[in-house]
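in:
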């Protein structure tokens, strides 16, 4: 499937609703208890919020501006641990919903052309990337974290399912 902005937005606008449907009002046993290497759903929502403020739209602006320095600021993959301290999951879900709404408002306002989607920026680790790749990655990033939420939650019952483990690929 080739990148199309409208198709990307179909997924991006649904992610906050999907995440909320999966997590809202669940007990902490399902949503917390992660570590810096095995994030809980609570941590993942914080990470998604951080991405809205420092990754997708800010990096797209760097590409679109085509100023003297098109190198992205490195992304802090663990910033959510400080940002989310003292907050509830309900607050984070609201923050994510609002941040994503604003990001998509900005994205839609640009009315991007095929030429703009080919503009390039410089990722600090990956090198040259174009806007289309950045926006495609945003979609896949969302889907990756939805899978990560599901996997974390499924693992809560990894022992409880007994012999059915072999039939449950999410536990593999």
């Amino acid at each position: 499937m080739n990148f199309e902005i409208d198709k990307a937005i179909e997924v991006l606008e649904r992610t906050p609703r999907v995440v909320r449907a999966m997590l809202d009002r669940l007990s902490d046993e399902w949503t917390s208890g992660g570590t810096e290497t095995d994030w809980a759903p609570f941590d993942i929502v914080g990470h998604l919020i951080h991405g809205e403020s420092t990754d997708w739209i800010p990096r797209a602006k760097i590409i679109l501006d085509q100023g003297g320095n098109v190198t992205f600021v490195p992304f802090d993959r663990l910033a959510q641990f400080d940002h989310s301290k003292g907050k509830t999951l309900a607050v984070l879900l609201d923050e994510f919903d609002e941040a994503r709404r604003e990001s998509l408002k900005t994205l839609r306002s640009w009315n991007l052309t095929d030429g703009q989607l080919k503009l390039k920026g410089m990722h600090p680790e990956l090198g040259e990337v174009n806007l289309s790749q950045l926006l495609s990655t945003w979609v896949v990033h969302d889907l990756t974290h939805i899978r990560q939420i599901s996997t974390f939650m499924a693992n809560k019952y990894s022992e409880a399912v007994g012999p059915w483990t072999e039939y449950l690929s999410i536990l593999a």
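note: The domain at 5-171 is CATH 1.20.120.450 (Four Helix Bundle (Hemerythrin (Met), subunit A)).
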